[in-house]
């Protein structure tokens, strides 16, 4: 009987070896290769949604979800040393902690961004496999499981050997989540005809790790601003009335063409002022995205705003501290400046020739809509995450 050689793994191995990205693709294309039912039957039949799902803790290698709304997180690893094991276990736990701050709309937004789609692409992917999934039940279950930290966390790697028992000590350091955990060795063999054989093996697993869980409120009260009647009253002054009508028409056109990836972001009304406020999830309306038009300069722009000495200001500071990463996610054109109080401020703006000309106006509206969508996608979840930490530290 002919021996079956092991296919060498690792990006730096000999020609024909596979890398972590290849394992990701294998898991994404064939989720049944994972022996999930042997780890926790509640998570059986997961559906692959996407690879490299963006979170504030980093991209999740593989994200899957069951038709019942249970999330599965997979981290793929080519093991080289014991330190690598500690790092990857800590990493997947960080992902779980971050996702426990999300709700279904947050997940929908990030999946849309990753897949380059709009609507509820997450539900569409699930219904491709199970057409009978009820939208309301699925969304409610997913939000509940995210908030509770009810996940299946899987680390999939090659050649995992000694030291598996030590992983338990890392798991015990993360309170506040209910999760199941599995460590899977996924050796790949080359058969004589050149085809590959995958022989998964469970090396470690937990029953559901139950800890004291503090449930976060599903939403935060947002302070509504900019009612159509807000602002100075210049009625009776023809010039004031003309400028008010010009501003309001501009914002009506802007909002009519605005498409946001984030389904949870509230949309303001067309304002009579030269700006709009998109409120972010911070207590007492203390964080928002200001969107403005300067009529004299023919300039439009956006910038992150916050009340002084507030959770929103704390969030702003946290975001500024992560400026290199934030700057890149904002497509590299945003700037870090200071506001009138000397606080750091993140924003972007562009000047056009004449905003009353139809071609310039159309370009300005399109540019501004793109900027608002990107700023909401990048900054809103960061504000939310920072506010959770702000409250955890005993603040308001």
TrEMBL record:
| Annotated region (Disordered), positions in chain | 220-239
* Native source organism of the sequence: Ancylobacter novellus (strain ATCC 8093 / DSM 506 / JCM 20403 / CCM 1077 / IAM 12100 / NBRC 12443 / NCIMB 10456)
Q: Acidic residues composition bias: which ranges?
A: 225-238
Q: What is this protein called?
A: DUF4268 domain-containing protein
The UniProt entry, under InterPro entries, shows: tRNA_endonuc-like_dom_sf
**Molecular functions per Gene Ontology:** nucleic acid binding
């Amino acid at each position: 009987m002919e021996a079956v050689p092991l296919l060498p793994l690792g990006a730096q191995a000999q020609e024909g070896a596979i890398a972590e990205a290849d394992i990701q693709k294998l898991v994404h294309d064939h989720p049944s290769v994972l022996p999930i039912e042997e780890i926790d039957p509640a998570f059986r039949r997961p559906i692959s949604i996407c690879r490299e799902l963006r979170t504030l803790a980093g991209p999740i290698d593989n994200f899957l979800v069951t038709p019942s709304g249970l999330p599965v997180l997979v981290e793929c690893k080519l093991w080289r040393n014991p330190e690598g094991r500690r790092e990857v276990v800590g990493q997947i736990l960080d992902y779980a902690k971050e996702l426990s701050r999300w709700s279904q709309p947050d997940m929908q937004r990030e999946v849309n961004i990753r897949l380059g789609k709009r609507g509820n692409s997450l539900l569409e992917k699930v219904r491709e496999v199970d057409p009978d999934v009820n939208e309301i039940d699925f969304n409610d279950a997913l939000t509940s499981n995210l908030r509770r930290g009810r996940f299946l966390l899987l680390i999939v790697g090659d050649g995992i050997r000694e030291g598996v028992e030590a992983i338990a000590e890392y798991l015990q350091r993360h309170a506040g989540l209910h999760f199941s955990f599995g460590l899977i060795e996924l050796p790949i063999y080359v058969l004589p005809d050149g085809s590959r054989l995958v022989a998964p093996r469970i090396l470690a697993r937990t029953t559901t790790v139950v800890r004291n869980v503090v449930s976060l409120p599903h939403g935060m009260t947002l302070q509504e601003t900019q009612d159509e009647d807000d602002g100075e009253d210049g009625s009776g002054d023809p010039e004031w009335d003309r400028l008010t009508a010009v501003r309001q028409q501009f914002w009506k056109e802007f909002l009519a063409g605005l498409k946001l990836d984030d389904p949870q972001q509230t949309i303001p009304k067309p304002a009579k002022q030269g700006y709009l406020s998109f409120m972010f999830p911070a207590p007492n309306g203390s964080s928002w995205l200001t969107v403005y038009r300067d009529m004299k300069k023919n300039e439009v722009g956006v910038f992150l705003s916050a009340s002084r000495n507030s959770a929103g200001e704390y969030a702003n500071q946290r975001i500024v501290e992560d400026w290199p990463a934030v700057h890149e996610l904002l497509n590299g054109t945003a700037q870090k400046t200071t506001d009138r109080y000397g606080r750091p401020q993140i924003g972007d703006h562009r000047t056009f020739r004449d905003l009353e000309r139809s071609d310039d106006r159309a370009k300005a509206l399109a540019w501004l809509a793109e900027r608002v969508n990107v700023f909401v996608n990048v900054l809103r979840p960061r504000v939310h995450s920072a506010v959770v930490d702000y409250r955890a530290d005993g603040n308001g």
